[in-house]
TrEMBL record, chains A, B:
Organism: Aneurinibacillus soli
PANTHER family per the UniProt record, alphabetical: PSEUDOURIDYLATE SYNTHASE, TRNA PSEUDOURIDINE SYNTHASE-LIKE 1
GO molecular function terms noted in the UniProt entry: RNA binding; tRNA pseudouridine(38-40) synthase activity
Assembly description: Homodimer.
The Pseudouridine synthase I TruA alpha/beta domain, residue ranges: 11-106, 145-255
Pfam family membership, one: PseudoU_synth_1
Record-stated family: Belongs to the tRNA pseudouridine synthase TruA family.
This protein's name: tRNA pseudouridine synthase A
Recorded catalytic activity of this chain's protein: uridine(38/39/40) in tRNA = pseudouridine(38/39/40) in tRNA
Binding site for substrate: 112
Length: 257, 257
C-alpha cells in the first residue's frame, strides 16, 4: 500500500488532559486522537506534533502529521475524526502533504498567548481558561521589561531546568500586551489582559516563565532592569516564577512555504 | 437581635448545578450559597431570588436577598462568601437594603441573552456556554420574526405547559440579534450570534422557546408570519421548539429606584 502523509490542524481545551503527549494510563490529547485515527484507518498511527503542550494548556491552532496506508482522502479526516473525538478536541483542517513535510521540523514561527484576568473578583466563566490576578498591574512597566526579550537571546534563565536541548538560543519577534476593559457595568470587573509571544520557537516552560517574570514586574516586585540582568546571566539556577497552565494557549504555528 | 435585609448580586456558571433552586440531594446554586451563608451568619438562611434558572443555565448578574440577625456589615459578604463558595459561583456585590426591598417582587426589567455558535465545526472553548448550530442562519428573517414579539402579548404559545401563573401576558421591550464574526484566520470558524431579550419578565422556558422559534425561522423551516400566527393563537398545545440550556444567560435584573 502507498504511504501518504496527512497534516491535521486542531484545537483543544487542555483542562481534562495530562498534556498533549501520549501517556500509558492518563488521558492525553495525543492518546485520544490516535485512538480515533486507528479506528478510521485500520492500523496503528503515531502523531508527530509541532510541539507538546503541558497538562492544562490549551491550543487554538495546533498542527501534527501522521503516515497512513489507508485510502481516505486527506480532507475527509475533519468530519471523520470529529464524529468520534471527545467534544474538547476539534479538528479544523486535514490535508495530504508532500512526503517531505514535517510538523515539527518545518515550523518557522510559533505564537503563544497567555490570558490574565486582572480584577478583584474571579469570574466563573474564565476558571479553566485564564489566570486570575487580583492586584492591579503596571502595564507600561511590563511592556518595558518585555522589550528586553525581543531578538535573539540565550534563554537559559527562562526555561525549565528539565530542558534538554543543544541550544537554548531562540528568537522572539514580538511580545504584545493587549488590555481589554471587561464589562464595566458589572461591579468589580476589571481587565482582560492577553500577552502574545511570537517567535522562532520556545523552550520548555519558556512562555510561562517569561509571563511569570513580566507579572513580577507588573506587581512592582521586579524592575525591567532586573529582568534584563536575569536574561544576561544565562543562569539555570536564577529564581524563576512559573504561572499556571490554564492561561496558556498555543495560538498559531507557521510553516515554510 | 435586629433583622436586616441583605441584597446579593452574583454570577454563576450553571453547568455543574441542577438549576438555581435548592434540591434535596442534587447540587444547586441556592444550596451552595445558603450553606456558605449559614456558616457565616450562624443561623439558617433562605435566599429570595429574582427568578430561578434551570439546570445548565448561566447567570451573569443574578440578584437575591436574605434576612439575617448577624452583625456583619452588608458590603462584607462579597469577600466573606467568595472565600467559601465554589469557583463557579462568584458574589459581585452585597449591600444592606431597606426592609421593604424584595428581590423578586421589585423587579422592573430583566435581560436574558442566548448565545449561538454558528459554524461548521464545534469549538472546544464554547462547549458549556453556547448552542452549536451548524447550518447557516437567515439573520434578517430572524430579525423580522422577532419584531412580532415586541410589545405586550399573551405568550401562552411560548412557555412550558408546566407554567402555573395567573397571567401569561408579558411585555418585551427589545429583541436584538448581534452577529460577530469569529476568528477568520481559523478555517471553519463562523459566527458568534447573541440574541438579547429585554422585557418586564419572562415565563417558564419562554426565552428558550422564543429562541427556538427564531432558530426555526433562521433555518428556513418557519416563516416570520407563521411565528406571528403562533403568538396570536395563544395555544398551550402549539408545537414548541426548545433549545438547550447551555446557551442561556440571565444577563441583568433591574429594580425600581
Amino acid at each position: 500500500m502507498q504511504e501518504r502523509k496527512i497534516k491535521l490542524v486542531f484545537s483543544y481545551r487542555g483542562t481534562a488532559y495530562h498534556g498533549f503527549q501520549r501517556q500509558r494510563v492518563l488521558p492525553s490529547v495525543q492518546g485520544e486522537m490516535e485512538k480515533v485515527l486507528k479506528r478510521l484507518v485500520g492500523h496503528e498511527v503515531s502523531l508527530a506534533v509541532s510541539g507538546r503542550t503541558d497538562a492544562g494548556v490549551h491550543a487554538r491552532y495546533q498542527t501534527a502529521h501522521f503516515i497512513t496506508t489507508c485510502g481516505i482522502p486527506g480532507e475527509r479526516f475533519v468530519q471523520a475524526m470529529n464524529t468520534f473525538l471527545p467534544d474538547d478536541i476539534v479538528v479544523l483542517e486535514s490535508k495530504e502533504m508532500p512526503f517531505d513535510f514535517h510538523a515539527r521540523y518545518d515550523v518557522v514561527e510559533k505564537t503563544y498567548r497567555y490570558r490574565i484576568l486582572n480584577q478583584r473578583q474571579s469570574d466563573p466563566f474564565l476558571l479553566d481558561r485564564a489566570y486570575w490576578v487580583r492586584v492591579p498591574l503596571r502595564i507600561e512597566q511590563m511592556r518595558a521589561a518585555a522589550e528586553h526579550f525581543i531578538g535573539t537571546h540565550d534563554f537559559t534563565s527562562f526555561c525549565s531546568v528539565r530542558t534538554h536541548v543543544d541550544s537554548k538560543v531562540r528568537t522572539i519577534y514580538e511580545i504584545r500586551i493587549d488590555v481589554e476593559e471587561r464589562d464595566p457595568y458589572v461591579k468589580g470587573q476589571g481587565q482582560d489582559i492577553w500577552l502574545t509571544f511570537r517567535g522562532s520557537g520556545f523552550l520548555y516552560n519558556m512562555v510561562r516563565m517569561l509571563t511569570g517574570a513580566l507579572l513580577e514586574v507588573g506587581k512592582g516586585r521586579w524592575t525591567p532592569e532586573y529582568v534584563k540582568d536575569m536574561l544576561a546571566s544565562k543562569s539555570p539556577s536564577v529564581r524563576k516564577v512559573n504561572v499556571p497552565p490554564q492561561g496558556l494557549y498555543l495560538w498559531d504555528v507557521k510553516y515554510k512555504e
